[in-house]
Write a structure and sequence with these properties.
Delta-aminolevulinic acid dehydratase; ALAD_AS; two-stranded antiparallel ribbon; EC 4.2.1.24; TIM Barrel; porphyrin biosynthesis
Length: 346
């Protein structure tokens, strides 16, 4: 029986002939050469650290769904703020978890000048005056139903909510907030907050708009952290953006800039890097993303199971934000990343 012999294909051109002499691996050959051509860099100055607050003194509670993240009483939040300043983190963002007994359908406690978020701002600003403080005007930590606004007959009412958020922004600025970052997605709230701040003499307080906040599945651990898990009636699709829509996100961003936003934020982060890129390209303004609780929890859980290298995944995920065009990132990894960038500094 005759055997068919297969001839090996002959390469007709050398690699240099194929590539025209362009060998793209040349600058990847060593660590020093890779550093020379690195296009994007992650710095400590790019980080904003979200911190959760609780009532009491000398209290620290871990958040089960977010390993390594805790809620802090005001005195301990001050210590965390001091830690952030030592690490060179430029700003923190505070989120309160108040007792259920102080929540109602209107989120009225947000208008208490001495509420948890405002007490924390005063204490942190006194202890670390050069650290930026970012506060959120949304009502969800203060409502009994978990929505970001006032709920009437099953509907989150826009205009009443905006009026209340604007009043809360003035109280937060008076307590020491440097940036108001409303995450509620109500129509007109940026312009109303700007008018209220200016009228009260807080022209220098900036607004970081959650311009494009999507109705995402990645917020679950955060809701546990602020105590709204299980409270939410219905969903937030009538005011958050549909995850399928990107042109709508740009319209939201354009509107918020027209109303007076100084900075724009995209939330969540990694699933919406295309939105970050489009916003930065379209408007060229300071642009941020929030690496939300679900993103953080996924990396932590996979690392705990030995499925990924947690530190490398953490750093790679944050570098992706910079590559997409972010000027900064809100991330629960902030102190970990800062320590890694500084070596052993704490």
């Amino acid at each position: 029986m005759n055997r068919i012999t297969r001839q090996q294909p002959q390469t007709s051109r050398t690699v240099d002939e194929i590539t025209g002499g362009r060998r793209l691996r040349r600058m990847r050959k060593a660590g020093w050469s890779r550093r020379l051509v690195q296009e994007n860099h992650l710095r400590v100055e790019d980080l904003i650290w979200p911190i959760f607050l609780i009532e009491g003194e000398n209290r620290q509670e871990g958040v089960a769904a977010m390993p390594g993240v805790s809620r802090y009483s005001v005195d301990l939040a001050v210590k965390q703020a001091e830690r952030a300043a030592r690490l060179g983190i430029p700003a923190i963002a505070t989120f309160p978890n108040i007792p259920l007994s102080r929540r109602d359908a209107r989120g009225s406690a947000i208008l208490d000048a001495d509420n948890l978020i405002n007490r924390a701002s005063r204490a942190i600003k006194e202890a670390v005056p050069d650290l930026g403080i970012i506060t959120d005007g949304a009502l969800d930590p203060f409502t009994s139903h978990g929505h970001d606004g006032i709920l009437k007959d099953g509907i989150v009412v826009n205009d009443e909510t905006v009026e209340q958020i604007a009043q809360a922004a003035v109280l937060q600025a008076a307590a020491g907030a440097d940036i108001i970052a409303p995450s509620d997605m109500m129509d007109g709230r940026i312009g109303a907050i700007r008018d209220a701040l200016d009228a009260a003499g807080f022209q220098d307080v900036a607004i970081m708009s959650y311009a494009t906040k999507f109705a995402s599945a990645f917020y679950g651990p955060y809701r546990e952290a602020i105590g709204t898990d299980g409270l939410l009636k219905g969903d937030k699709k009538t005011y958050y953006i549909d995850p399928a829509n990107s042109d709508e996100a740009l319209r939201e961003a354009e509107q918020d800039l027209a109303e007076g936003a100084d900075m724009l934020m995209v939330k969540p982060g990694l699933p919406y890097l295309d939105i970050v890129y489009r916003i930065k390209e379209a408007f060229g303004v300071p642009t941020y993303a929030y690496q939300v609780s679900g993103e953080y929890a996924m990396i932590k859980a996979a690392a705990a199971n030995g499925w990924i290298d947690g530190e490398l995944a953490m750093m790679e995920s944050l570098l992706a934000f910079k590559r997409a065009g972010c000027d900064g990132i809100l991330t629960y990894f902030a102190p970990e990343v800062a320590q890694r960038l500084h070596g052993s500094r704490t």
